[in-house]
């Protein structure tokens, strides 16, 4: 009787193991199906990682809403990639495209880990991107990622006081309000510098548009 029970038990375990294996395979298939991308989306994901404007623009002309599309793995948008790569000119052109085509875009969008473009720019020490984000697009310096960190907490100790001020690493006690919120504000000197940066951003977009116009005429 003991031998029979043992055999039955082993057979039962075998069936359960097989069923478990089938279930796991089924789950994998379902997961794969849930992230299947159409060819346009797949090409977009590849191009955003490359960060080349000509390729991105070609796809955006076909489908402008791709500009806010998130990578299903990292949760990055094209703005996250531009910030990570330190391409402030590309960032400006993407935002300008969204505005011209009436497409909603969020410079504070979070990735799968809760990173905003500002977090990524700080992590990779891309000073010009940080200045552009805060100065031209009013990126929120108080947003925390899912580990609880603000962008300023990823700055290097060797970074200048100016950039630390810009993204909120140094909170001026004079900005503390009665409610205790303590929202950081730009010093007047930095405000003037960032106003100049906004103008530079506009010049970049205008110059790029002019280059494209000349190219079309020549063609």
From TrEMBL:
Alphabetical list of InterPro entries matching this protein: Ankyrin_rpt, Ankyrin_rpt-contain_sf
Mapped ANK repeat ranges: 113-146
Keywords of this entry: ANK repeat, Repeat
Coiled coil: none
Composition bias, Polar residues: 9-21
Keyword Repeat: yes
Keyword presence, Zinc: no
Region (Disordered) residue spans: 1-21
UniProt superkingdom: Eukaryota
A Pfam family per the record: Ank_2
UniProt family annotation: Belongs to the SOWAH family.
Protein name: Ankyrin repeat domain-containing protein SOWAHC-like
């Amino acid at each position: 009787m003991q031998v029979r029970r043992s055999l039955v038990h082993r057979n039962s375990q075998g069936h359960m193991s097989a069923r478990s294996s089938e279930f796991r395979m089924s789950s994998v298939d379902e997961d794969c199906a849930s992230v299947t991308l159409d060819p346009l989306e797949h090409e977009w994901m590849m191009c955003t990682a490359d960060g080349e404007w000509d390729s991105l623009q070609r796809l955006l002309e076909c489908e402008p809403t791709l500009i806010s599309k998130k990578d299903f793995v990292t949760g990055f948008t094209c703005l996250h990639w531009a910030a990570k790569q330190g391409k402030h000119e590309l960032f400006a052109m993407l935002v300008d495209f969204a505005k011209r085509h009436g497409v909603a875009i969020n410079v504070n969008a979070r990735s799968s880990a809760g990173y905003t473009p500002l977090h990524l720019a700080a992590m990779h020490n891309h000073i010009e991107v940080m200045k552009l984000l805060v100065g031209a697009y009013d990126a929120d310096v108080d947003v925390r990622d899912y580990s609880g960190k603000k962008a300023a907490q990823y700055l290097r100790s060797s970074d200048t006081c100016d950039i630390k001020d810009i993204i909120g690493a140094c909170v001026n006690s004079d900005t503390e309000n009665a409610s205790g919120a303590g929202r950081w504000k730009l010093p007047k000197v930095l405000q003037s510098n960032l106003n100049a940066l906004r103008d530079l951003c506009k010049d970049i977009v205008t110059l790029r548009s002019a280059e494209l116009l000349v190219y079309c005429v020549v063609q």
